[in-house]
Design goal:
- With 295 residues, the protein is α+β, with helices and mostly antiparallel strands.
- The chain has two domains: 157 residues, Gyrase A, domain 2, CATH 3.30.1360; 85 residues, Elongation Factor Tu (Ef-tu), domain 3.
- Strand 4 and strand 5 form a beta hairpin.
């Protein structure tokens, strides 16, 4: 299994007698469904339901929880968590000695022991954002695998349609549905209230989510991230991560469907592109046209 250190990621430790109750009440992830070997996605939202911070959450094996996030947002994330802590008996700090690595293999028979990065001093968790047969493991340890596989990892992530803040969307600018957290187990629709829950629940139960992450492909190299995606001269989304001829984009899927039905070219800059729903996702293109909905 290939493995690589992710130097732009860091682990935040949450422990104390109230740790799980505290996080369960503010984060989108349902911690009651978090297994001992799982790393699940989640978000801390604004009251308006937008993603303020995104992360992977897992158990530390000692009664606490680990939040893996972008290193550049960690201090702000900790400040926000501390703001919500109030009188809860919780300690929050960065585990700067724990290097973050990832190991992956598309073989469904792969296991933690198959990872060359697996070490006795490491915490290894199954990244549940990736659907079978792909298997991905996050490794938190004091050592990291040698070698340069960053681009191979990015290509793998893009091929599976897994979006992350920074390269794919800006924080405070996307709803959980936009980046498929409702599809990857990052939102607990059966749990109690959390910050922004009312907006997200309403969007889910009314089926009003129209911005979604789609796979992007082209017959030539794609333009840079952030390039507008257009159909019939109208902007319907923007490119996120790009690698050669492939990438991700958050787009209005109703307008994509209209363009496909009409045979209208969809472009990113001057490049003609094809857009597809990730094979593991459970949503479909809407049957109603955007013009009908907007009427």
């Amino acid at each position: 299994m290939p493995a690589v250190q992710l130097p732009d990621r860091i682990v935040i430790s949450i422990f104390g007698p109230d740790a799980e109750h505290f996080l369960q009440n503010i984060l989108t992830t349902d911690l009651d469904a978090l297994g001992a070997e799982d790393a699940k996605p989640g978000a801390l939202l604004t009251p308006q339901g937008k993603i303020l911070f995104d992360f992977l959450v897992s158990r530390d094996g000692k009664g606490g929880l680990l939040l893996e996030c972008r290193a550049d947002i960690a201090n702000d994330f900790i400040r926000r968590l501390t703001l919500y802590k109030l009188r809860a008996k919780v300690d929050i700090f960065k585990q700067e000695q724990l290097l973050v690595s990832v190991s992956w293999n598309p073989d469904s028979n792969a296991s933690v022991s198959d990872s060359s990065a697996s070490q006795t001093d490491s915490i290894v968790r199954h990244d549940r954002r990736f659907a079978e047969p792909a298997r991905v493991f996050r490794i938190y340890g004091q050592t990291a695998p040698a070698g340069d596989q960053i681009q191979a990892w990015e290509d793998f992530r893009l091929a599976h349609g897994i979006a992350e803040s920074g390269p794919d969307y800006a924080l405070s600018d996307a709803f959980p549905h936009d980046v498929l957290l409702d599809q990857t187990g990052g939102v607990g629709f059966g749990k109690g209230c959390y910050i922004g829950q009312e907006v997200v629940s309403r969007m889910h139960h009314r089926g009003t989510a129209r911005r979604r992450v789609l796979l992007v492909s082209a017959e030539e190299p794609l333009p840079p991230s952030g390039t507008d995606i257009k159909a019939a001269g109208k902007t319907i989304g923007a490119l996120g991560s790009v690698s050669g001829n492939n990438g991700l984009a958050i787009v209005r899927i109703d307008r994509v469907k209209d363009a496909m039905d009409a045979g209208t070219a969809i472009t990113a800059g001057e490049v003609a592109v094809s857009l597809a729903i990730p094979g593991w996702a459970k949503f479909t293109f809407p049957q109603e046209s955007a013009s009908t909905e907007d009427a």
